[in-house]
Design a protein that fits this description.
7 helices; 165 residues
């Protein structure tokens, strides 16, 4: 199981969330992270917004990885949200975003933060994984696809479930 997969539980996944823009999405993410990890929702939202002000966390290809380092976070936390409709996110390729992995890490966890971001970026750069996540109908399936993605299995090759075979 990859680093991101170790963070996610079925309850950390939301599918087909109906939001119109980035700020509405960040509010949903902040609520989920705060409720799942005993954090103050306003602080989570402000941390995510502050990071977005530095530059969009959209990677392109319909994916964004909003993230923040927070003093209140003791262990890394993450959630995956797929929006009902793609939303503008200031992506480098200009495409709207529908697949979002949000991460929180302890303020002092520089290396851990970078490793999680690298793992997330690697997995979400895989077209088969993105397509598989677009087809999921259940949160458990989406979490499993993310958790089972393995770069070493072929540099972008995902488990058979993600390819629909």
């Amino acid at each position: 199981m990859n680093l991101v997969g170790q963070l996610l539980h079925d309850e950390d996944v939301l599918l087909d969330v109906d939001v119109a823009n980035k700020d509405e999405l960040l509010k949903v993410i902040a609520h989920l992270l705060a409720s799942r990890h005993g954090l103050a929702e306003a602080q989570v939202l402000e941390s995510l917004r502050a990071r977005e002000k530095l530059g969009s966390t959209a990677l392109g290809q319909g994916v964004a990885i909003p993230h923040a380092r927070m003093d209140q976070v003791r262990e890394p936390a993450g959630v995956f949200v797929r929006t009902k409709q793609p939303i503008p996110f200031d992506a480098p390729d200009g495409k709207p975003v529908s697949k979002v992995l949000a991460l929180l890490v302890p303020k002092e966890a520089n290396m851990q933060h970078l490793q999680l971001l690298a793992d997330a970026a690697g997995s979400f750069s895989d077209e088969a994984l993105r397509e598989g996540l677009g087809r999921c109908s259940q949160c458990e399936e989406a979490r499993r696809l993310i958790a089972e993605w393995d770069e070493a299995a072929g540099r972008g090759d995902t488990p058979a479930n993600a390819r629909g075979t």
